[in-house]
Amino acid sequence: MELKWNCCKLMLLLALCASAGECRRRLKVGRRQNPQSSHHNVRNELKSLAIKHRINGTTTERVTTKNSTSSGARLGNAFNTEYYLPVTIGTPPQEFILLIDTGSSNLWVPSSKCPATVKSCVSHNQYDAKSSSSYVANGTAFTIEYASSSQGGVALSGFLSQDTVTIADFAIQNQVFAEITEEPDASFLSSPFDGMFGLGYASISIGGVTPPFYNLLDQGLIKHPVFSIYLNRNGTSATDGGELILGGIDSTLFTGCLTYVPVSQQGYWQFTMSSALLAGQNYCTKCQAILDVGTSLIVAPAAAVAKINQILNVLNPTDTSGVFLVNCSTISSLPTMVFTIARNDFPLQPSDYILKYGETCVSSFTSLAGSDLWILGEVFMGAYYTVYDLGYNQIGLAKALH
Length: 402
Hints:
The protein is an alpha+beta fold. It is built from eight helices and 27 strands. The radius of gyration is 20 Å and the shape is globular.
């Protein structure tokens, strides 16, 4: 009853907000054709994912939205595996393409101080502090490390700086971010994005840096501590890939009422999932899960993935890369996956959880060594509109309209 009342309160609040004028802004998501359409892209993403969770393992353009008081910027999507947005830093503005990521909380971009030997850094847009009149030096060392001592080493490193960061028409003053001077070529050399724009809780922000979304609130740029995400999944349009809405929700993008579930641990957008059923078998009993727009796949415990692979009859069950192939001709006969969250079912059809790359079909189920979390990435979020409520510390889900 409490969750339902919170849902109604939020809907009423946003309705009043919309009638009162400017209270939220959205960023229109677009997609571009990636010249390297391949299931190997998924392998590269798994490397980035292991880094982010510390375990082994386009042009900027204003758009007019349905709300005349709102404006936004177009985003890109590389083959439904990476959704990114244009952001500018500095005065005059320097443009970057940043991966939106609810599984991390920092903003980082390559630095002009990158050594020429770091190919993944110099092949992307780089922030030049000397060219910005609003730059404020910080200099604190910044690192993201692998958790495994056996692999060891620094995945990303650099230092902190401060400047004006603009997302859509919101100019965030004095935003601290990381300038990256070292990053692994294997994970980032061919990535379509320059850096990351974290949307997770402040508690997982490296270095205690205040995340951009918190500063949007603190500086009065948005009134309500809510953002929501809608993803399209056809991977062909340059202008209609979905939306990131800052400060509210858009009820025209989903059907039915939102189901709300409390955040179980503030860090990732983490919650308790009641069950996960495939072909009558349950792989989760009140397990912990997170929503992560920075992940294209569905990550599950290794034991669950092994059993799921048997049901899907994957072609390479012993492959150690974490990318499992499926016979494309069998997709229509595969079973529906059903996740139960807050006493409501959220089914995924085989056409949702099997990724197609030309004549190659890939299961979206994978695992990461050292993690027991379920990570519901863009495969899930393409089917369901998701709301992230920092005020009530809850997550909302509803079937997306496509």
